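G., the chain you wanted modeled:
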Amino acid sequence: MKLLLTGARGHLGTNFVNLCASSFELVVCVDKGSSQSNDKIILPNVVWVDADLLSVDIIGLLRDYHVDHIVHTSADTHVDKSYLSPIEFIDNNVKVTVLLLEAMHRMRDAHGIDIRMIHMSTDEVYGPSDTPLTENVDLHPTNPYSASKASAEMMIRAYISSYALSVVILRPNNMAGMWQPEKVIQTFTYRLLDGLKIQIHGTGQQVRDYISTDELCSVICSLIHSNHTGVFNIGCHNGISVNELASKIIHRVHQRCGILGLVEHVADRPYNDSRYCIDTTRLTSVGISINDVVWNRFDDIVDHYIDKWMSERLLV
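Predicted structure as tokens:
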């Protein structure tokens, strides 16, 4: 199999290359790069293309590298930023997805080549819920980020209906793992190490479930090697509040560094979902299970960001 991986220097993309790339004949990694991008992972079967998907010749990449699968992880995912720059989220989350779909459609029409896509969405498209939701319920996104991901899904459904494209949509929990810049675990850890208080939106009672990024990569690989299509919820039922997550990070940073961390509550987002809750029965029904290992590995994840912070300060 020959893959085109979008967002290859982001959190999920980096972990996918590190854990899964060796099992494929070729992985073409596309990423425009930014100040928050991870370093490239160099492997014999990995080709790097420094490009913005909004402007690169996607059809040319698919044709020249004989791609048969797209793993679409590229996205703007920061909810707070989506309130500040919603148009960027439409461009990077919706328009890029449409450009990939159109390239798939044209590759079939012009070259007779069928390409399958694994598209990363999010459980946030459902909106808040205290009861497990299946893949066939209506979507009720409540912020510009989740609305952009739901919009991308609607375009995918339109292309499936119109052109019978082969696409798998994944709706995972929040991810927790290495190489995750700017998200909650690194942000909280870095603030403590910088001598600052952890800032929590509102009451901090909002609950989130977490899936190990390693486990999510394993699921993606399993689905690539299957013939399944449609939508899959992916996650664990291990929810904790933002306050509890902060306490875990404070505890580990104190163990490692002797720092006594503090928390301050700041103004909440315009809307902050109380929790998400998904039903993963469909995933298990096709023989794919999730190992709920996030909290067993949590100290290692925090240690990764402590070590990263220390190495960055040595370079200054």
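The mean pLDDT is 96.

Shout if anything looks off.
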